[in-house]
Amino acid sequence: MFNASAQDAANGKTLFMGKCASCHNVTKKGTGPALGGLEERHKWADHNEILKWAHNPTGYMATDPYTQGLKAEYGSLMQAFPDLTLKEVDDIVAYINVTWNEFKNPKPDAGAGAGAPAATGNSALIFGLISIVLGVVALILMQVNSNLKKMSDDAEGILRPEPVPFYRNKVYIAMIALVFFVIGGYYVSKGAIGLGRQKDYQPVQPIYYSHKVHAGINQINCLYCHGSAWDSKHAAIPSVNICMNCHKAINAYEKGPKLYDEDGKEINGTAEIEKLFAAAGFDPKNPAKWDPSMAKPIEWVKIHNLPDHVYFNHSQHIRAGKVQCQSCHGEITAMDEVKQVADLSMGWCINCHRQTKVDFNYSQGKGNQFYSIYEKFHNDIKSGKMDSVTVENIGGLECQKCHY
Amino acid sequence: MSNNYWQGFGEVNDPENLEKFTKDEFTEELPFEGFDDKGLVDAKAPRRDFLKYLGFSTAAATLAASCKIPVRKAIPYANKPENLVPGVPKYYATTYVQDGDVVPVVAKVRDGRPIKIEGNTLSTSTNGGTSARVQASVLDLYDMYRTRHPLQKGKDGEFTEVPTFEKFDQLVGDAMKAAGGQVVLLTSTINSPSTLDVISKYAGLRHIQYDGVSYSGMLLANEASGFGKKLPTYKFDAAKVIVSLGADFLGTWLSPVEFAAGYSKGRKIDEKNPTMSKHYQFEGSLSMTGANADERFTHRPSETGVVASALLGALNGSSVSVSDAKLAAGIKKVAADLAAHNGEALVVCGSNDKNVQLIVNAINDKIGANGKTIDWSSTVNYRAGIDSEMNDLIAQMESGAVGTLLICGANPAYTWADGARFAAALKKVKVTVSFSPKLDETTSLCEYVLPSPHFLESWGDAALNSNTTCFIQPTIYPLFKTRPFQTSLLKWSGQGADYDEYFKNYWTAKLGSEEAYFKALQDGLVTTASAGAGGNYNGAGLTEAIAAVSAKKGTGTELVLYQKTSIGTGAQAGNPWLQELPDPVTKATWDNYAMISMAKATELGIKLNSDYEYYPEKPVVEITIGKNTIKLPVLVIPGMNADTIAIAVGYGRNEAIGVTAAGVGVNAYPFAVYNGSTIDNYVSGVTVTKTSEQYKIAQTQKHNSYENRKEVVRETTLASFKKSPNVLPDWSEELEKEYYQGANGSFRSNATLYPDPNGRTHEIHWGMSIDMNSCTGCAACVVACSAENNVSVVGKREVLRYHDMHWLRIDRYFVSDEKDPDNLKAVVFQPMMCQHCDNAPCENVCPVAATNHSSEGINQMAYNRCIGTRYCANNCPFKVRRFNWADYTGADSFPDNRDQQLIGKLDSVIEQMNDDLTRMVLNPDVTVRSRGVMEKCSFCVQRLQAAKLDAKKENRMLKGDDAKTACQMACPTNAIVFGNAWDKESSVNKVREENKQRMFHVLEQLHVLPNVTYMAKLRNTDEEDKNWGEAEHAGAEHAGGEHGEMDGLPSSTKPDSTAH
Fold first, then answer.
1. Please, which of A380, B583, B661, B725 could form a disulfide with B653 given CB 3.0 to 4.6 Å?
2. Domain shared by B338 and B404, yes or no
3. Distance CA A118, CA B198 (A)
4. CB contact, 8 Å: B965 with chain A?
């Protein structure tokens, strides 16, 4: 059971998030049963059984009292996944097992690694201090030197003009001006480059919507709400009717942790849900009377803004590139109100394109068939000239990848 | 004597002077003030000025930058429609209809907005082709000058809004009851079966169809010949000999998209056995169709009947008695060719004279066209108006017999030969209702206006021919308070239902089931079984017709009215894309003018030198006949009949049509003549006098100079091509061997600063191939490009300053004898856009690397990197780069940056294009460029990236033909082929492999390695083209010409030259 590689579990996580997470949780009951430790239940240790079940739940249930019991308990039957393969089931189970084990045997908090970056910060400070001290020492020595020279000149009787005091010394003035120019220039250009960038932008939204509660604690799949990210360039904000799919039933914020806004003021979760009801025109006391067509859209504040001359496509990244949402949006599952984590600068984009490997290994039956067109790279990989293909290799740094 | 390729008279008559004029690509001085014309250094205070500018721009930039970043809202749907994904376009089959024109199309709808029209490839007759007007129709939807709600004219003559449709119904109903008399519905041709059904159910309604440019002569002649009052389907693809008597069937005659698709099938060349159809054109002026003809003969417009009867006579064996010797020889030749191709020939005629059309019917019967190239079993209803009915109606209106006149689509106050008479007669009608979407000339005279929705907002149908019906479905909720006029008819005739509902019920019943109805909507058309054989030719009235036409004698100077490919009858004249579209023949935008012959120019004392050519000021002439007088600028065109003046209709519109059309050109319709049964579109005996005035015409052809490098265009005759098929490949080989192979033996990698172009490419290499033999010059691609790529409209004043922005232009070359430019042998159309050179000269000179090469062979342009030095445009041998001289699009960071002293005043059309409503047409996937950056054809890179992404999403290989450019999809003749050229299975690769003998790169000697290949144009004549042979020799000359001057070769590639 524990021989599953980390790679399998990682694949499993992607699959789990994509296919299972909207109904299942590893540790808790959701729309469907908690999946942790599933191999100890029923016949699920045999993954072929899981596959049969997932391919055709109705058919499987007809001859199987255990799943009939589940349906009775949860009230609904699982949706069919006819495309699921055995390998995928293996991966998903591997992920479930890993998560389940972590849950059962929690590791001590990993906080030791945080010291290292602080240390580099400190050393920079120390080097800076040393430089300033050395600079001051050098200045003093220069003064001492000129005084000594003057004294020796006096002693030897050489007449020299009165030395210019250092604050009127043109060399010093020029030096200082130069230093100011360089430092000033550095900050001006840095500021100019940063114009229009909004890293850490965290506007107040019309409704205090906590991603932590939804995507973190309740583990709702990102694509459940932002489904268009899978098909479109936009990861559009969900419409009111999507929110109401769940909130028809959930009309109070009770069990979750306490919520606070930026200033530390406590937020009343139930009141925020009521704001949604106001937009939807929904009366929780009288749910039967709700007319969804009377809903009004909610005016959210857009956080991630790209300039007009940049073409960005969500589906390209998450579907073709299999990039996790968190790669760009940060630990969204830990944020109450969302803030912009990346600066969304071109350098930031390019860096990722340089490092990210594309899903290239089609010859092993995996990978995206699209890349089979790059014959040269396949030959190079075979002959060992290169070990992987990055986005950069297939034109990911070219202007018209993103600007047109 | 050898053939000469030229674009303007300056080149022919005055080449040295012209060179001086065209030396500077950017003719203007830099826009600084206060230099007293002494240049920067000698100016009063250049340093201070410099510091002032520097200070100002720094301050301005700081100010602009320090402004708070605006809070942007992201507002989702309240209830997202289930099948809609924001950002993913949807495609709906619908149909372009305009006054009887029918083209099945597919509308691309992005987030609820239609933004682009493509052809519907399911249609076998149009084959997915479109025209410029079809492409531009999406902009009409967002026309800010559309009437936005129902109107009623008050006592003071001003229109006021009618608050509800019910109120409008009540008002009109009461007025109609009070008025009594006849109720007449006057429309343009209606070919919608369900609408005709609605009209037929309106008891007591008299329906009259009227066409701005009439075809009643043909309808009446066909009726007399025994075919019924119908128009047949013409099969240009089945014809080996095509004779057109003044019919502009590729540009404006009946159904040009359909005809161009058929025509081009006969013009495709199979190199193993080169044959093509033969196209003869007889006409007075030079039309786009005439420009495509293999052989052209000119005559007076009044002589069409004489030519037709002479042709019929020659076919019957009698001698040709036409005064002009060249014309007589032509008729004899054509008659012989027609006789030799019995059953494979077709004669079409643009005349609106019943007698002429009767003779044409007799010719077609004689040459066995009926049933072969003319299909009477499938008739069409593009035009159904009969001029005499209209004339009678006006008389009845004058007598007061007409109580109510409902007008839809027709605009007789503008298009009728005596529009003033119609306008006066309209005042005698008690109740006048117009359903026009705009306050056009007729509508503004009406009492009630109930605007109709645009076709992209409507339900409807249109019969393409008697076997095919096309469907219209709405692609957007109506923008304004409009109602289909059919609904009004239903309500007013007491049937109650809305037309939407009526339409659905009508077709569900007709097609048998709701399922079939939905299928028809999805496909955009249904085909039903053929209606039957459709009548036999009976020869009635022929003798009288011959007698009548020979009695007609034209005298003096004749004036002929024609339609421009872009503007047509003028129904879409308010469309900025169409107004700015250069005319295929004259390359003029934003105006109509008098096209005159070179002989006429000499007679009027107009010198055809570089001054005429270069400066936009053209002499103005006064044209008079009877009480009609107009003043128009002239454009001298070679290959015109000496005594013919041609003027385009559709211009000179009223203010209410919008700033785009108002004040542009002069209305020429009053020159048409009602001859007692039909409208004649020509008139004899006009007086032309030159005035001292001058008028600026914005022509685009002279904007770019190839510096006499004629290798850009390749054209020859079929005979010469057959004789020496390898001229082009031989020349390539010659160049390769002699200049570019060099020490390392590689043609591609030698003689370039870049690393080996082969080394930097992967397995995708985009390429385009353009068949100049198929290109008719119709310019559908130009408008398609503007629509797809948000190419800005700049207005006439800017076109005059060479600031036009079209990424794709169609170059027009006249081919004539060197000594006799008026003896036009052919006109070559060459679509010219960025060639995406693998060894691009523009890339080397950009100081900021804003333009560079992609691994997929695309010459990329990063707008936001561009600082506007324009070095790239200077260095581009094809002159395809366009600079944003002003803020045409409103994309600048400074708001309202358009009206400045320094750059001059922009036309008000720019304001129209920047209206929030008009901007809805913009393609959200393409950057809207701001002022000061260079732009050019991108090979529709947004489509290429989308095609790649689709393949990745579907986990499959990219197929060679997956990506299609906008110009390629718009082309009705499939002249443009695009794809991954390195894919052996791609169409572009196959086309290149199969056409090696005609394939060439423009200016191949420059060794810029373009990714666009062209295929030489062939003329189907027996003439021996000496140039073609010479090109072969030219290669040999180059080979041995170490001391010779090698025209066009860049000096750095000459073997004996030293580096600069």
1. B661
2. no
3. 82
4. no
Cβ contact A305–B938 (<8 Å)? no
Percent of chain A at pLDDT > 70 equals 92
B856 and B724: one domain? yes
pLDDT digits (tens, 9 = 90+) for B170-199: 988 888 888 888 889 999 999 898 999 899
Closest among B436, B390, B388, B448 to B411, alpha carbons compared: B436
Using the Cβ of A236 and the Cβ atoms of chain B, whether some distance falls under 8 Å is answered with yes
**B813 and B837 housed in the same domain:** yes
B83 shares contact with chain A (CB less than 8 Å): no
Do B742 and B593 fall into the same domain? no
In a domain, B77, yes or no: no
CB B428 within 8 Å of CB B398: yes
Please state, in angstroms and rounded to a whole number, the distance separating the CA atoms of residues B620 and B666: 13
- Would an 8 Å CB–CB cutoff place B949 in contact with chain A? yes
Residue B299 belongs to what domain range?
216-379
Average pLDDT in the B324-334 region? 87
Last residue of some domain: B330, B352, B379?
A: B379
Helix (H) or strand (E) run with residue B413 in it: helix B412-415
- CATH number, domain at B630? 2.40.40.20
Same domain, yes or no: B332 and B434: no
- Give pLDDT, residue B772: 92
Check pLDDT > 80 for residue B750.
no
Same domain, B463 and B369: no
3-class DSSP string for B462-496: EEEECCEEEEECCCCCCCCCCCCHHHHHHHHCCCC
In DSSP terms, which residues pair with B818 in a beta bridge? none
Residue of A nearest to B852 (CA): A399
Which tokens is A134 given?
């050395």
B364 and B413 assigned to the same domain: no
A293 touches chain B (CB under 8 A): yes
What's the pLDDT band for A54 if we cut at 50, 70, 90? confident
* B314 lies in the same domain as B392: no
pLDDT band for B728, please (50, 70, 90 cuts): confident
Q: Cβ contacts (< 8 Å) between B942 and chain A: which residues?
A: 311, 404
Number of domains present in the structure of chain B: 4
Domains of chain A (ranges; CATH) run 6-104 (1.10.760.10), 211-334 (no CATH), 346-402 (no CATH)
Q: Which of residues 907-946 of B touch A (CB under 8 A)?
A: 925-928, 938, 941-942, 945
CB atoms B80 and A241 under 8 Å: yes
Last residue of a domain, one of B647, B679, B699: B699
pLDDT band at B1057 (very low <50, low <70, confident <90, very high): very low
Structure tokens belonging to residue B437: 């979407």
Report pLDDT for B1036.
Answer: 38
- Is A239–B79 a contact, with Cβ atoms under 8 angstroms apart? yes
**Site of tokens 């309209």:** B426
| Closest chain A residue by Cα to residue B790 | A404
Using the Cβ of B30 and the Cβ atoms of chain A, whether some distance falls under 8 Å is answered with no
pTM: 0.83
3-state SS, one letter per residue, for B705-753: CCCCCHHHCCEEEHHHHHHCCCHHHHHHHHHHHHHHCCCCCCCCCCCCC
Residues 6+ apart with CB under 8 A from B1045: none
Task: Show residues of chain A in contact with B928, CB under 8 Å.
Answer: 308
Closest residue in A to B65 (Cα) is A195
A183 pLDDT band, cuts 50/70/90, is: very high
What's the CATH code of the domain at B487? 3.40.50.740
Does A366 contact chain B (CB < 8 Å)? no
Residue-wise pLDDT tens digits, B987-1024: 999 999 998 888 999 888 888 888 999 999 999 888 88
CB pairs under 8 A between A and B: 148
What pLDDT does residue B68 have?
Answer: 64
Q: Does A308 touch chain B (CB under 8 A)?
A: yes
Residue B36 belongs to some domain of the structure: no
